[in-house]
Design brief:
The complex is a heterodimer of chains A (415) and B (118). Chain A is an alpha/beta fold. Chain A is 40% helix and 16% strand. Chain A folds into 2 domains: 11-40 and 302-409, Aspartate Aminotransferase, domain 1; 47-300, Type I PLP-dependent aspartate aminotransferase-like (Major domain) (Aspartate Aminotransferase, domain 2). In chain A, the strands form 4 sheets. In chain A, strands 2-8-7-6-5-3-4 form a 7-stranded mixed β-sheet, with helices on both faces. Chain A has a 4-stranded antiparallel β-sheet with strand order 11-12-15-14, covered by helices on one side. Chain A is globular. The longest helix of chain B has 16 residues, at 101-116. The model of chain B has no long low-confidence stretch (mean pLDDT 92). The chains are: A alpha/beta (415), B alpha+beta (118).
């Protein structure tokens, strides 16, 4: 039943992927994980880093002078150095959060003081709700104009529409670097340049981009980039906000309390310098130390390999899904997308597909993927879809098994 | 697998449609997943009730709405109040019930909330 689809993944590359796969203790048997877009699996190195913290030096950070506390603080700050190096940024520009959503909300809070009545904030219809709702609320509160850039039927961002909407009164442009549903990678450099020419702040949602592609914040020219640590092989409960230093220096934290202060008086307080200012209270210490190890894991594989290999893999996934009669694939061709594909089997509800695949040992996500406006815009049945998202440990064989299982779904559901 | 039975109820739903002059109409849904079931109940003079549903969503939620309404139709209020997940398990098997609990029980939970408003 092999379908007509070409595969240009090299045998050596598959061997490397299979070796990487061995680093993930959760992949014990022949289960197939195609949900790295929701959260990535954790390699042994990350689990070990968290275990070491919890077992060997489980003290709070930035507080005490005894050896455990010093070790915990060193490791926590080392994670910040690792993330800074990954993005080619200063370490003072790296703020740890619990997830990408919190990071974007923090960016919106920091920028809120620059937004006035009559201003405009631009997002796109591609956005995850996390890069949609914080801006909608900010606009509602300030009497600013919430403006949504459209896509075409293939899921490409409509750059003409963007340029039309990018008016002089645009204060913030908040755009995804890669759609979590249709995978579209918009022309970010062009978007940043156009927005900057109009004097707008630029906030980028890198949740689906940073795990798969190298980002150099220096050359990108944006003001904020948010992403999830837990989608980058880090532990759950970890996220990152990179912010331009001069903006962070002028901003206020979401939360007040411990850590974020220099001094407190009965009639006021002085804030600590960034990034500590934005990490109020005891952070997810073990998680962040694990994230530091996750960044080392990514660097040890190298973005060159990740990008090259996943590009071929997502093409194979896309072509394979397209080859199945009755399968609708959403979004642009593989050369314009990151490592995921959303689809539906005509006549079967996406929950039923994902559930059946789960019984077959294949893990994919179904639902609205926190992108309801996009599903409606593209007239996707039930406003929901099935999404297979890839990581560097997946292989063409995983995709073959997905396709075989989809044929079983079709037979079982009689479509 | 009980899938064929589920598919039969999905493609040929029993008790699907609005009940005119219903005594209770209650909408139930699983937030975030889009499954919706509206339960209609009309009480007859003999103390038995007529039950029907409308809705949209996944195969399991809609099939189980059909199974539930078909099973409950013609029963007394007390009988419906005493229904539990057991009859669903007998109809669809424990694997589907366990792995799709929220989908499978949406109609039954909505029906039981509706009947308490009678």
């Amino acid at each position: 039943m092999r379908r007509n689809r070409s595969m240009d993944v090299l045998v050596e590359e598959i061997a490397i992927a299979n070796n990487i796969r061995k680093e993930f203790p959760s992949l014990r048997g022949d289960e197939i994980y195609l949900d790295s877009g929701a959260t990535s699996l954790k390699p042994r190195k990350v689990i070990e880093a968290v275990r070491r913290y919890e077992e060997e030096f489980p003290a709070n950070v930035h507080r005490s002078a005894y050896p455990w506390a010093e070790k915990a603080t060193d490791e926590y700050e080392n994670a910040r150095k690792n993330v800074a190096k990954l993005l080619n940024s200063k370490k003072e520009e790296i703020v740890f959060t619990k997830n990408c959503t919190e990071a974007i909300n923090l960016a919106a809070f920091i920028l809120s003081k620059y937004v006035n009545r009559g201003d405009r904030i631009i997002v796109s219809i591609l956005e995850h709700h996390a890069n949609f709702l914080p801006w909608m609320r900010l606009c509602n509160r300030k009497g600013a104009e919430f403006t949504v850039v459209d896509v075409d039927e293939e899921g490409f961002l409509d750059m003409d529409d963007f340029q039309r909407k990018l008016t002089k009164n645009t204060k913030i442009v908040a755009i995804t670097m890669a759609s979590n549903v249709v995978g579209t990678v918009p022309p970010i450099k062009d978007i940043v340049k156009l927005a900057k020419d109009k004097g707008a702040f630029v906030v980028l949602d890198g949740a689906q981009y940073v795990p798969h592609h190298r980002v150099n914040v220096g050359s990108l020219g944006a003001d904020f980039i948010a992403f999830s640590g837990h989608k980058l092989f880090g532990p759950s409960g970890t996220g990152v906000l990179w912010g331009r230093k001069d903006i962070l220096d002028e901003g206020e934290p979401l939360l007040l309390g411990g850590s974020m202060i220099k001094e407190v008086y009965i009639d006021g307080f002085e804030m600590a310098d960034p990034p500590t200012r934005y990490e109020t209270g005891t952070p997810n210490i073990g998680g962040i130390i694990g994230l530091g190890a996750a960044v080392e894991f990514v660097e040890s594989i190298g973005y060159d390999f990740i990008e090259r290999y996943e590009k071929k893999l997502v093409r194979y996934l896309y072509d394979s899904l397209k080859s199945v009669e009755g399968v609708e694939v959403y979004g642009p061709p593989p050369e314009h997308r990151t490592s995921l594909v959303a689809f539906n089997i005509r006549g079967v509800h996406p929950h039923d597909v994902a559930w059946y695949l789960g019984l077959e040992g294949i893990m994919v996500r179904s639902g609205g993927h926190c992108a309801h406006p996009l599903h409606r815009r593209l007239s996707i049945p039930f406003n929901q879809s099935v999404r297979a998202s890839l990581s560097v440990f997946n292989t063409p064989e995983d995709i073959d098994r997905l396709i075989d299982a989809l044929y079983k779904v079709k037979r079982s559901f009689k479509v | 697998m009980f899938l064929d039975y589920i598919l039969d109820h999905y493609h040929n739903p029993r008790r699907r449609g609005k009940l005119e002059d219903a005594d209770v109409v209650l909408k139930g849904g699983n937030p975030g997943c889009g499954d919706v079931v509206i339960i209609y109940i009309r009480k007859g003079e003999d103390g038995r009730v007529e039950v029907s549903f409308e809705g949209e969503g996944c195969t399991v939620s809609q099939a189980c709405a059909s199974i539930t309404c078909d099973f409950a139709n013609g029963k007394t209020v007390e009988e419906i109040k005493n229904l539990d997940y057991k009859f669903l398990e007998e109809h669809i098997g424990d694997e589907i019930l366990k792995t799709r609990f929220k989908c499978a029980t949406l109609a039954l939970d909505t029906l039981k909330s509706a009947i308490s408003g009678l």
